[in-house]
């Protein structure tokens, strides 16, 4: 009889079918209501109508899938593959056949189809009466699970084998999803690396969110373990078979009842125990491979840690990992040991030929491809491997004792390291103290040497002061002697001279002369400083004048010069026009005066004729009229020089005089007319018509001439005003240009000042740098001086030691000579060369 492994459509086919939701809902309902749990109540009787209805629905759906061409094709291909990879049941387990329905020779399907039908029938009956079959024949159920659970029954079978009860954990799971976990970032980071090639777990897929929810819920359910890398692969494998709640319940049972929780604890003590047990088994069963691993330094954890943490999910293909999980749910962690030993036994020859890097690549790549198409060989060898429980317990005790010993050694090592660190700190402290004492000793020697030098200097200075004191006493005695002699001489001089010189007045006079001399010197110094300043100012002005002369005029200056020339030309033209106007006015006044004189004479003659009086001459009329001579001609001004204020006042005075003359002329004419009228009334009466016409004509002429005179005056005043305006504009332009030049000069001086300030700052900075360098050099010089003194002190000590050695040698030499003299032999000559060589060697050792 052959047990089919992959004879039915896979779980993904059911999920993609139209009836997948109803199937999984029925399975979930069945599992949540009827699954065994070791800590809760058991299932109801197998005759429950709900269970029967669920199983009937499952059978109908399976028949529908079998009727589909694609499902049948997949079934046939997978059944043939499973037939090739299946193995017969052992002879000792023929009691399974009573669970199978009897065969009929009239059936036409192939053997694989019959076996598939039998396997489906077995698991269908087993699920219906799980509690009864599990109690009656648990070994048969386990053996059947080891042979492989059909894909469609894994959802329920894994829950039943693990003893998961979804109903008890459903409320807790919903509560966990509403909480936040401290491991969310780590879970989110590892999720994309879980089954990245499967569409169900790709980015933004439903599988990633379900995987995140289950891992988050368990990290909150078991806070001691929290989240560990590797557990996500087991949860992903469960999610490929069942929904979130069922996967969470099965994962909780796997962690609690199958020692996975101990593997995932932060200390990972159980993982170390498994590594040790596997290593001892390899040493016992495959010694040559064990020796090869030791020679290459290939530790067991380098290839087997992922086997225990992920139950071969990351090492072997997914369908093979599902088959291993079937076995794992029956036998627990012993399954991993058997599969691991089976892989190592089959790969022994290949591994013995590889180095460490090659073995790593082999376990990562070659193992997967080796068992991808041949599953039953692995399980056949694994089923033959026998694990001794007593020996496993013994290995566990050895590991625990070894671990305890290692922990004690680690504690002792930490204690020794702590003591070593404290001793090193003590040594460092003592070294620092010794270095400080050495420094103090050196400083004491230096201070002693300095004090010795100071004492020598003081003694030398004391001797010098003694000499100076002796000389001072000697000079003082000489001075006293001289004073006595001078007193004697003075007394003799006072006797000889009658007039005594007043010493006080002489001293005051000398002081006064000295004060005057000092003042004279100070005045001389002030005058010299003033002369230097004036010379410096003259030099600056000369340089500025020279610079202005050498520099060509700028564009603005040239334009100003041209404008000045044009202004001067306009001024000259206006002056000429003004002169012409004044000349015309003078001529006009002369003509007017002549005209008025002529009219006055004519009128006077007419009056005389009418009065029978002789006519007046023009001379008499001029005298009566007090004709004022015409104004003198104005002096000719330079075309480049504007008229002065005095000249303007003269011009105004001339205009006033002209107006005064005109007024007088009009008065005289009026008087003449009045007088002529009083003397010749008869004539006026006779010639009334002619006189009236003549006077009207003369009045018009007078008005016309007056208007002409006013016009001339107005034009003259207008030209004068324009001349003044032009002069003021010229002065304004000149002042503006001067202000601009002064602004430019001020700007230039400010720039020079800023440059000077910057240069001064740079020089000050350089001076400070030089001072710092000087201080550094002085400190270095002091240090060198101290070092030289230290070397000198050491040299003195060395010389003293050499002298001591020389004295010892001389004493030995004298002793030897005495001995030779006593013995009566002369061996002294033999040791002279050695003594001198020793002295020469010792004299070369010190370095001054």
UniProtKB/TrEMBL annotation:
Record-linked InterPro entries: Rab-GAP-TBC_dom (IPR000195), Rab-GAP_TBC_sf (IPR035969), Rab_GAP_TBC_domain (IPR050302)
Gene3D superfamilies on file: putative rabgap domain of human tbc1 domain family member 14 like domains, Ypt/Rab-GAP domain of gyp1p, domain 1, Ypt/Rab-GAP domain of gyp1p, domain 3
Compositionally skewed regions (Low complexity) per UniProt: 22-32, 71-87, 639-655
Keywords assigned: Coiled coil, GTPase activation
Gene Ontology molecular function: GTPase activator activity; small GTPase binding
Residue spans of biased composition, Acidic residues class: 35-48
Basic and acidic residues biased stretches: 57-69
PROSITE patterns: TBC_RABGAP
Region (Disordered): 22-111, 607-659
Domain Rab-GAP TBC: from-to ranges: 148-332
Coiled-coil stretches noted in the UniProt entry, renumbered to this chain: 510-598, 711-819
Superkingdom of the source species: Eukaryota
Name of the featured protein: Rab-GAP TBC domain-containing protein
Provenance organism: Meloidogyne floridensis
Lineage, highest ranks first: Eukaryota, Metazoa, Ecdysozoa, Nematoda, Chromadorea
């Amino acid at each position: 009889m052959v047990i089919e492994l992959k004879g039915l459509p896979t779980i993904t086919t059911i999920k993609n079918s139209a009836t997948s939701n109803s199937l999984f809902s029925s399975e979930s309902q069945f599992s949540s209501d009827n699954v065994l749990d070791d800590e809760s109540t058991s299932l109801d009787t197998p005759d429950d109508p709900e269970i029967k209805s669920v199983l009937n629905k499952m059978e109908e759906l399976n028949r529908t899938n079998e009727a589909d061409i694609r499902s049948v094709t997949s079934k046939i291909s997978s059944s043939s593959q499973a037939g090739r990879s299946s193995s017969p049941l052992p002879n000792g387990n023929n009691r399974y056949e009573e669970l199978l329905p009897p065969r009929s020779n009239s059936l036409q399907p192939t053997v694989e189809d019959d076996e598939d039908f039998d396997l489906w029938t077995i698991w269908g009956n087993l699920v219906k009466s799980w509690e009864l079959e599990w109690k009656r024949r648990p070994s048969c159920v386990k053996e059947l699970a080891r042979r492989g659970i059909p894909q469609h029954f894994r959802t329920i079978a894994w829950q039943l084998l693990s003893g998961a009860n979804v109903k008890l954990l459903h409320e807790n799971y919903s509560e966990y999803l509403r909480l936040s976990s401290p491991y969310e970032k780590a879970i989110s980071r590892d999720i994309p690396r879980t089954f990245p090639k499967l569409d169900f777990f790709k980015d933004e897929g439903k599988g990633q969110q379900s995987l995140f929810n289950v891992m988050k819920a368990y990290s909150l359910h078991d806070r001691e373990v929290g989240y560990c890398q590797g557990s996500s692969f087991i949860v992903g494998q469960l999610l490929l078979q069942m929904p979130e709640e069922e996967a969470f319940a099965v994962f909780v049972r796997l962690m609690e009842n199958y020692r996975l929780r101990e593997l995932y604890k932060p200390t990972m003590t159980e993982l170390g125990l498994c590594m040790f047990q596997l290593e001892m088994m390899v040493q016992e069963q495959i010694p040559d491979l064990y020796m090869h691993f030791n020679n290459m330094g290939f530790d067991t954890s380098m290839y087997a840690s992922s086997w225990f943490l992920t139950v071969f999910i990351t090492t072997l293909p997914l369908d093979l990992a599902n088959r291993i999980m079937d076995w794992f749910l029956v036998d627990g962690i012993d399954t991993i040991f058997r599969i691991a030993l089976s892989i190592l036994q089959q790969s022994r020859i290949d591994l013995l030929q590889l180095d460490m890097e090659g073995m790593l690549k082999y376990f990562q790549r070659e193992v997967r491809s080796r068992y991808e198409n041949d599953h039953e060989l692995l399980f056949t060898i694994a089923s033959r491997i026998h694990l001794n429980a007593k020996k496993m317990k013994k290995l566990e005790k050895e590991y625990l004792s070894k671990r305890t010993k290692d922990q004690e050694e680690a504690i002792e090592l930490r204690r020794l390291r702590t003591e070593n660190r404290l001793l090193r700190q003590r040594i460092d402290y003592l070294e620092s103290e010794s270095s400080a004492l050495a420094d103090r000793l050196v400083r004491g020697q230096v201070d002693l040497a300095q004090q010795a030098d100071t004492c020598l200097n003081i003694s030398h200075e004391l001797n010098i002061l003694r000499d100076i004191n002796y000389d001072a006493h000697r000079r003082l005695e000489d001075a006293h002697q001289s004073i006595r002699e001078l007193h004697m001489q003075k007394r003799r001089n006072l006797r000889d001279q009658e007039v005594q010189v007043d010493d006080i007045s002489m001293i005051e006079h000398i002081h006064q002369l000295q004060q005057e001399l000092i003042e004279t010197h100070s005045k001389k110094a002030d005058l010299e400083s003033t002369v230097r300043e004036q010379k410096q100012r003259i030099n600056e002005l000369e340089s500025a004048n020279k610079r202005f002369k050498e520099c060509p005029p700028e564009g603005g200056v040239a334009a100003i010069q041209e404008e000045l020339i044009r202004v001067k030309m306009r001024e000259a033209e206006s002056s000429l026009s003004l002169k012409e106007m004044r000349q015309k006015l003078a001529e006009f006044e002369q003509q007017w005066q002549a005209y008025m004189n002529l009219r006055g004479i004519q009128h006077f003659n007419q009056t005389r004729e009418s009065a029978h009086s002789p006519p007046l001459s023009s001379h008499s009329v001029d005298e009566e009229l007090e004709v004022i001579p015409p104004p003198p001609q104005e002096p000719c001004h330079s075309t480049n020089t504007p008229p002065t204020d005095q000249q303007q006042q003269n011009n105004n005075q001339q205009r006033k005089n002209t107006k005064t003359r005109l007024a007088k002329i009009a008065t005289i004419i009026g008087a003449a007319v009045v007088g002529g009228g009083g003397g010749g009334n008869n004539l006026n009466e006779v010639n009334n018509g002619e006189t009236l016409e003549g006077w009207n004509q003369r009045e018009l002429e007078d008005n016309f001439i007056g208007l002409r005179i006013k016009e001339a005056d107005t034009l003259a005043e207008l030209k004068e005003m324009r001349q003044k305006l032009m002069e003021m504009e010229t002065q304004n332009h000149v002042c503006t240009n001067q202000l601009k030049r002064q602004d430019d000069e001020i700007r230039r001086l400010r720039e020079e000042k800023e440059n000077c300030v910057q240069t001064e700052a740079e020089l000050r900075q350089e001076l400070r740098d030089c001072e710092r360098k000087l201080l550094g050099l002085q400190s270095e010089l002091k240090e060198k001086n101290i070092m030289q003194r230290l070397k000198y002190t050491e040299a003195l000590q060395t010389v003293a030691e050499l002298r001591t050695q020389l004295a010892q040698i001389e004493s030995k030499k004298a002793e030897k000579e005495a001995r030779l003299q006593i013995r009566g032999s002369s061996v002294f000559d033999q040791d002279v060369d050695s003594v001198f060589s020793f002295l020469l060697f010792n004299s070369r050792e010190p370095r001054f």
